[in-house]
């Protein structure tokens, strides 16, 4: 903060403060329920009181516990405080986590210059509350920002650290989807970190088995596979590929077609993520592209990806802003608008709340016209376009360097975060 230029930091702080004041007013009038926070607190109470964790139903919507027992144990401290206090504390905590995610995103991308990053962190913390996934995370009292910070913190550390992978394993123990990042580590050649993540996840399972054996047995043999506990696949709240398929095919169970489509995207997404990470010799910000592609793949292929699961829009937008900034710095004769246009279109999509504006009532969700389905499945479309943009970016950089397009066995050559930091010392290479 001491290195940051004072005037830009003062302007950014003023804008952020004004935005947060407006947000507080809007939050008051939309009657923020923080319903997920109430579920987490009930899970912690079930553990503390020895009740059946997966039999509980809370709030007017009769919401059940859906996370592994390890997560419920971490929620026990929330039972020590009244709900009124938790509303304030968790909101402030999530704002702090948004700032941390911004900082880790800048570190991952290696942009902008170090002294300018506090300005960016302040702006994202103040203005980022209007991004729909962040707004909804704050509204429901969700843990998405915490999980994202665990994963980004792990991935921005040196590959030489023996503990690399521990935070990813813990995140997967809380909510299974982050386990895909262990696969990302494995296919990008960081085998030790991948196994560390796997062993850490196994440790969370053993903790649950020892302390909550009945709940652990029930979760892994029954409740994990009961999608009705999580929610309906077809509603617009679900911004996964499977949800988009359900709405497109006008059925709550899109069946084999959706399974094949999701499987294809899973394989393609992981392949592109590995391709990006292993292209560090030619691709600036290769690790950032790999991580963001893996994150987008994870939320696309999950059976249920609520809109607030897309908080990965923060590092996505930072990465696209970096590409747009580099593009803008080129001489006018060779300058293009491609990345700037893509950045603004992506930002608009995450600010639009489009799925809520176009949301039909009740059973009408299964009878929408093709045109109306575009805004109600906006995040899957953005995610697929991002994967395509990654392919275009990698292909262009390899071709311009005369490099082979095929992935070379064992090739990483500067694809990790340490090398990405080193490349910041040679901006001409961009």
From TrEMBL:
Composition skew (Low complexity), residue ranges: 418-430
Transmembrane segments: 80-104, 116-135, 166-187, 199-220, 255-276, 288-306, 312-329, 341-358, 378-396
GO MF entries: hexosyltransferase activity
Keywords: Cell membrane, Membrane, Transferase, Transmembrane, Transmembrane helix
Subcellular localization(s) per the UniProt record: Cell membrane
Annotated signal sequence range: none
Ranges where the record places region Disordered: 407-430
One Pfam family this sequence matches: GT87
GO cellular component: plasma membrane
UniProt topology in membrane: Multi-pass membrane protein
Main location: membrane
Protein family according to the UniProt entry: Belongs to the glycosyltransferase 87 family.
Protein name per its UniProtKB record: Transferase
Gene source species: Kitasatospora aureofaciens
Lineage, opening ranks: Bacteria, Bacillati, Actinomycetota, Actinomycetes, Kitasatosporales
């Amino acid at each position: 903060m001491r290195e940051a230029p004072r005037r830009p930091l003062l302007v950014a702080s003023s804008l952020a403060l004004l935005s947060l004041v407006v947000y507080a007013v809007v939050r008051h009038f939309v009657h923020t329920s923080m319903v997920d926070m109430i579920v987490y607190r009930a899970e912690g109470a079930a553990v503390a009181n020895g009740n059946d964790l997966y039999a509980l139903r809370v709030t007017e919507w009769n919401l059940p516990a859906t996370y592994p027992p390890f997560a419920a144990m971490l929620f026990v401290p929330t039972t020590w405080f009244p709900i009124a206090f938790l509303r304030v504390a968790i909101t402030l905590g999530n704002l702090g986590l948004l700032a941390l995610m911004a900082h880790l995103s800048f570190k991952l991308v290696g942009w902008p210059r170090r002294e300018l990053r506090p300005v960016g962190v302040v702006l994202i913390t103040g203005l980022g509350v209007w991004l729909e996934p962040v707004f909804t995370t704050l509204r429901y009292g969700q843990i998405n920002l915490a999980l994202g910070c665990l994963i980004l913190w792990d991935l921005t550390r040196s590959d030489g650290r023996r503990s690399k992978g521990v935070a990813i394993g813990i995140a997967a123990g809380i909510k299974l989807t982050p386990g895909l990042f262990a696969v990302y580590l494995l296919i990008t050649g960081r085998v030790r970190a991948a196994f560390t993540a796997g062993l850490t996840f196994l440790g969370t399972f053993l903790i649950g088995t020892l302390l909550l054996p009945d709940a652990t047995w029930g979760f892994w043999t029954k409740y994990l596979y009961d999608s009705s506990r999580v929610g309906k696949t077809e509603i617009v709240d679900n911004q996964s590929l499977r949800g988009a398929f359900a709405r497109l095919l006008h059925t709550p169970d899109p069946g084999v077609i959706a399974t094949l489509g999701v499987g294809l995207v899973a394989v393609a997404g992981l392949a592109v993520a590995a391709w990006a990470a292993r292209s560090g010799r030619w691709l600036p910000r290769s690790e950032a592209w790999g991580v963001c592609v893996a994150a987008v793949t994870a939320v696309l292929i999950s059976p249920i990806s609520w809109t607030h699961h897309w908080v990965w829009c923060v590092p996505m937008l930072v990465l696209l802003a970096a590409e747009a900034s580099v593009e803008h710095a080129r001489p006018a004769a060779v300058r293009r608008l491609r990345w700037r246009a893509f950045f603004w279109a992506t930002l608009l999509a995450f600010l639009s709340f489009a799925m809520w504006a176009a949301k039909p009532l009740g059973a009408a969700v299964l009878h929408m016209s093709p045109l109306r389905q575009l805004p109600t499945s906006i995040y899957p479309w953005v995610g697929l376009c991002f994967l395509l943009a990654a392919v275009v970016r990698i292909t262009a950089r390899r071709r311009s360097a005369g490099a082979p397009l095929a992935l070379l066995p064992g090739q990483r050559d500067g694809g990790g975060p340490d090398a990405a930091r080193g490349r910041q010392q040679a901006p001409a290479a961009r």
